[in-house]
Amino acid sequence: MHADLVIAGGGMVGATLARACLMAGLRVALVEARPPREDAGAGPYGLRVSAITPGVETVLRTLGVWEGVVARRACAYRRMEVWDALGGGRIRFDAVEVTEPRLGHIVENDVLVAALHERLEGCARFCPDTVREVEWRNRCVRVTLASGQTVDTALLVAADGARSQIRERAGIAFEHRPFHQHAVVGPMRMAHHHNACARQRFLPDGPLALLPLPGNWVSIVWTTTPEEAATLVDLPEAAFAARLEAASEGVLGAVETVGPRAAFPLVGGRAARYVRHRLALVGDAAHVVHPLAGQGVNLGILDAATLAECIAGRPDPGRLSALRRYERARRGDVEATLRLMEAFRHVFGSRLGPVARLRSLGLDWTDAVTPLKRRIARLAMDLDGERPRLARGLPLGARRA
Ligand SMILES: Cc1cc2nc3c(=O)[nH]c(=O)nc-3n(C[C@H](O)[C@H](O)[C@H](O)COP(=O)(O)OP(=O)(O)OC[C@H]3O[C@@H](n4cnc5c(N)ncnc54)[C@H](O)[C@@H]3O)c2cc1C
Q1: What is the arithmetic mean of pLDDT over 49-66?
Q2: Which of 68, 103, 217, 235 has CA 20 to 30 A from 27's CA?
């Protein structure tokens, strides 16, 4: 069969790209190894969640996907509080200060994937399936799947995550940044309601985030050393609950229900390039950021929105000129975020007394300067700066004949 583009990887980013390109009239084939969870949002909370910014919410609304997210399960948060365990500094954000109804939503990854896949009408969906072979030709790419089917396409997109095989096959170098940290994640029911506030406490070994879910539940992202993460995952529930209550300074009281826990190694990095002839990388296949500011999937969805905009309406979506436009539009934003996360990690990772005092002063000072705080918040919410059309609520160009 023929397609305008084949997307390898139908996670949050690949499926967003598929939906955007379908709406722009392109013929899309999507290859995904794992079928979406059918009961996403109905059963127990998933292990992995993402903080979705209002800018990315607009992308998903414009694509007609957001309704499916909120109909399943999502939790809006209106406030955010970040504080430093060593120096004592604190910064608070409130949606009122940025004249927005909310700062963002916490969405289970499975919920977003299910809502996206539900809207892939007209897509040639190969799921479960994987890419077995890629043959680069002059006018097309021939993609052979593990199931034996063959698709000829003008453009192959790698949306297959941080360990992208497509990126590797294409010989694109990836600069790995090992963080030597793991994140313990999982849903927990607390004694006190979170009051729609996302909280993050910087501990000496890494940040502990308490992300609001419906009811008294929060999803934790507890970044720490690999050894400590293994211990935390293996602890009996009561001992884990006591450790979590202490690490969160009891801000939400005792841990009443310990949900399933798992630890993930944290790695960072960036691809040397995002495009080459008839190939584009999006999401974690192109760049992996530390989760401390919850930006990874937001960056990836903005990649998808930008790439769709650059190729929509083009007779040949695989042309290098269109793909370069995508890379130019995204690299600056992504590099700025990567550098900022690195700086945060170093400053907040230091146990030196003077550094701890200075960073706490910085937090307190920024907290007091409302215009600066508002500027930081709006940028982090993807409401300002260069944004693709979909993030401004504008649909892509007209369908091709
Ligand atoms: C602990 C933790 C917390 C995080 N919290 C946040 C947060 O709050 N906010 C945020 O924005 N980001 C967060 N992130 C980052 C976020 O999870 C990633 O940026 C995001 O998952 C990237 O999406 P993706 O679609 O590019 O890749 P992935 O989510 O990795 O999806 C890749 C998809 O490709 C499929 N696939 C892989 N190989 C193949 C193959 N060969 N053939 C077919 N299919 C294949 C996989 O099955 C998968 O569905 C967090 C990350 C971690 C580790």
Answers
A1: 97
A2: 68
From 12, 274, 295, the mutation candidate for ligand 1 (largest count of ligand atoms within 8 A of CB) is: 12
CA atoms lying within 13 Å on the CB side of residue 275:
22
146-172 pLDDT per residue, tens: 999 999 999 999 999 999 999 999 999
Amino acid at 346: H
- Locus of tokens 């215009």: 371
Residue nearest to atom 42 of ligand 1 (CA): 130
CATH-assigned architecture of domain 2-176+267-392: 3-Layer(bba) Sandwich (3.50)
Tell me which residue of 333, 256, 253, 247 sits closest to 287, measured CA to CA: 333
Q: Enter the pTM of the model.
A: 0.94
Among 167, 148, 171, which residue's Cα sits nearest to residue 156? Answer: 167
Cβ atoms of 265 and 226 within 8 Å: the answer is: yes
Distance separating the N- and C-terminal Cα atoms of the chain: 19
Closest CA relative to residue 37, chosen from 48, 27, 26: 48
Lookup result for tokens 């997210």: 69
How many Å apart are CA 21 and CA 315, to the nearest integer? 13
pLDDT, residue 401, reads 41
CA–CA distance, 109 with 112 (Å, rounded to integer): 5
Q: 294 — alpha (psi -120 to 50), left (phi > 0) or beta?
A: left
- Kind of pairing, strands 197-203 and 79-84? parallel
The amino acid at residue 127 is C
Q: Which of 277, 268, 270, 368 is nearest to 319 (CA)?
A: 277
